[in-house]
Amino acid sequence: MAAPKKGRGSTGGQGRPGRALALILIAMVALTGGMFLSGHTTPRLGIDLAGGTSITLKAKSQPGKPDAINETNMNTAVSIIERRVNGLGVSEAEVQTQGASNIIVNIPKGTNSKQAREQVGTTAQLYFRPVLTVTDGGPTPEGSASPSASGTGKPSATPSAKASDPETASSPKATPSASATTQGRAVTDALKKDATPTPSGTAKSSDAPAATQTPDPATAALEKKFTALDCSDKSARAKAGDGVKPEDPTVACSSEGDAKYLLGPAEVSGTDVDDAKAQFDQQRGIWLVSMEFTDKGSKKFQTITKKLSAQQSPQNQFAISLDGEVVSAPQVNETLSGSAEISGSFTQQSAEDLANVLSYGALPLSFSEDTVTTVTAALGGEQLEAGLIAGAIGLALVVIYLVAYYRGLALIALLSLLVSGVLTYTIMALLGPAIGFALNLPAVCGAIVAIGITADSFIVYFERIRDEIREGRTLRPAVERAWPRARRTILVSDFVSFLAAAVLFLVTVGKVQGFAFTLGLTTLLDVVVVFLFTKPVMTLMARTKFFSSGHPWSGLDPKRLGAKPPLRRSRRVNARTDHPKEA
């Protein structure tokens, strides 16, 4: 009598299936409650199901760099754009090259999709350039009065916590004093100083006669460009710095178009920025972007601020230029290093946008929007409907097979499939806002394939139980003895499926990752359901008269299974051969 007790104890937990069922019930209630409380009662949908925006970006040729549009730079741009978009919480955005010079960006409809569209083609070329001359933003007709080179534009910023007050950096008024000719000479004088500003940067009317000055063609062209530049024209503002190398002086407009600048060569670039964050300054009540420099960038920043702090206005300013526009031009009164702050007329959204593009780096190429199209979900909806119909047909065939072959056991299998479906749905709904998971057509296919994986686990366990009954055992011992062998088979099978899903997820991109992710998730849930629901329910059902008596419709009828007769000899043989294994 002691041996059977030991055998039952070794199977572990057959008398306490309620604990496992209570655990999975609590998990289901918690997940369902969290889904409703979060307000996300349906999974997020990808662009093929929900629709969205498709943008074609065309790479622009780079002056002096005929080979800039190459495979390496295009792949780098794809990687940066993808990180930018996903950094905004927009998942399932597809970014891929098309041909030699085009990038296709598909952004699903939903939260932050508008922001993502605005950022995908932003080059985010950030430079810190010394200010040589600044005037108002309009063009300067020959002979008319214009602001002198001592004024500053409206944009404001502070390079760090130690920089001058932003009002001081942005408020000085320009005084009308110089004609376009005198202004041009001021530009020439500033350029002659080799981008190293000095207190005497503004030209005097008593300087050497114009006839004796022979500026080189590049200087004359830049002088003419600065004089004619009209920053109130958005198109002219955007093209002001086109084709200019970082090491060359350039002209630029403020982001609002009310000031134009003559800038020296770039001293610090965006690649020297280690991190950028949007912050709210409680004291000043404004949004700003704080930047931390790399070690190399910090040294560069310290060098330029030391040089600028010894100059007079406006040549003690440096311009923070983003994609050719001056977003701010603060004064520098002392040597700074380590960090900088960009402030101005930022909203929370614009500050976060700028911090995002700076954090993920500048694109190696400039792009223009070639086409922007709206993608409807009509085609995806039709495909989804067809897929769901196929899934429903497959599920119906599985149910018919289970009922026809396993009869009463089919009820346990269907309940297990229902539990697996509830867990899968609630987790997918919660993963949308949590990690940006979006359900696309391949992911739906992965969920349909999971039906077969889950059903296979039930079949393995049911067949093990039937094998034990064929050996002449009653149902309750058969349920417990079949579990260890079935458990090993189920774990090995699910491990192989999960490994395949993990490898597929790592080595693929785009929509195929959705299939792999869903397949891996449902494989893990299969283990949870079989261990915490199917096995405990089977233990409880074995205690009912319908199953334990071997009813013909239970699926466990000993006669239909060809069970051995319970003879005394067979019992002794079984006791001698089975109990040592149980012990």
Question: Could you characterize what this model shows?
Answer:
Helix content is 51%, strand content 15%. The model is unreliable at 1-13, 143-182, 194-212, 567-573 and 579-583 (pLDDT under 50). The strands form four sheets. Strands 4-8-7-13-12 form a five-stranded mixed barrel. A four-stranded antiparallel sheet has the order 2-3-1-15. A three-stranded antiparallel sheet has the order 10-11-14. Strand 10 and strand 11 form a beta hairpin. It is elongated. Helix 2 (17-38) runs antiparallel to helix 16, helix 4 runs antiparallel to helix 5 and helix 14 (441-470) packs parallel to helix 16 (511-541). The longest helix is centred in the C-terminal third of the chain and has 33 residues, at 475-507. It has helices spanning 2-11, 17-38, 47-50, 71-87, 113-120, 166-170, 180-192, 217-228, 234-239, 295-308, 348-359, 378-406, 409-435, 441-470, 475-507, 511-541, 545-548, 558-561, 568-582, and strands at 52-60, 94-98, 102-108, 126-136, 146-147, 176-178, 250-254, 259-263, 268-269, 273-281, 286-293, 318-322, 325-328, 339-343, 366-375. It has 583 residues and is an alpha+beta fold. The chain is built from 19 helices and 15 strands.
